[in-house]
Specification:
The chain has ten helices and two strands; from the N terminus they run H-H-H-E-E-H-H-H-H-H-H-H. It is mostly helical.
């Protein structure tokens, strides 16, 4: 892996996992030393992050961008459009057995959510697997790429839920409903289940972080 790719991946992970907080200054010398790269590949990595909207360049230098409620509203508007369409396409084109298996895993997910930190990470990996299964099922490279770009910001937003067990348990049931609708090849139900999940997720974030 190139040095710039390593630096990009490390910084991106630190940002989306909130180890680098909004407003944090990413000083070149400090970050290059921390990541074990020279300043040239670091600048390339920072440029990629800025292009994705995770950082911004200003008078102070490159800083981690903030997330406001207005930003979250806009992201969820786009998310509803993209993910609702993707769920409907997956129901038309996907492999039912794949989604039946995912449904069963989501039905059993409360044991992960209420378990240890590693078990909770397994739950997030299950969510990622559902996303990947939908991406593969829709057979639309442009839509899949648009959703992958959006998910960079959604992972950051997900962490605002602070691993709330009640909300995650409800979300697991909502994901199971999406997987079930895809498995029974019902596009309208898959889209409706996706819309319901997104509305509840947005309501939870707004209720728990009213000042953002």
């Amino acid at each position: 892996m190139r040095a710039s790719d390593r630096a990009y991946a490390a910084l991106r992970d630190d940002i989306v996992q909130w180890r680098l907080q909004p407003g944090a200054l990413l000083a070149e010398v400090e970050q290059a030393e921390r990541l074990g790269v020279s300043r040239t590949p670091l600048r390339e990595a920072l440029g990629r992050l800025t292009a994705e909207g995770l950082t911004t360049a200003g008078g102070r230098g490159v800083v981690v961008t903030d997330i406001s409620l207005e930003d979250i509203d806009e992201l969820f508007e786009l998310r509803e459009t993209l993910e609702g369409k993707a769920a409907a396409l997956a129901a038309e084109r996907g492999d039912p057995e794949t989604f039946r298996g995912l449904e069963a895993e989501f039905r059993a997910a409360p044991s992960l959510i209420t378990g240890t930190a590693p078990a909770l990470q397994d739950y997030y990996l299950l969510v990622d697997r559902l996303d990947s299964a939908v991406d593969a099922a829709i057979s639309n490279a442009y839509l899949a790429q648009a959703m992958r770009s959006l998910r960079v910001h959604l992972v950051r937003i997900r962490r605002l839920a602070a691993d709330d067990a009640a909300r995650l348990t409800a979300a697991a049931a909502e994901h199971a409903a999406i997987a079930e609708a895809v498995a029974i090849r019902n596009p309208r139900l898959a889209q409706a289940a996706t819309t319901l999940h997104l509305h509840r997720s947005l309501s939870h974030i707004k209720a728990t972080h009213p000042s953002r």
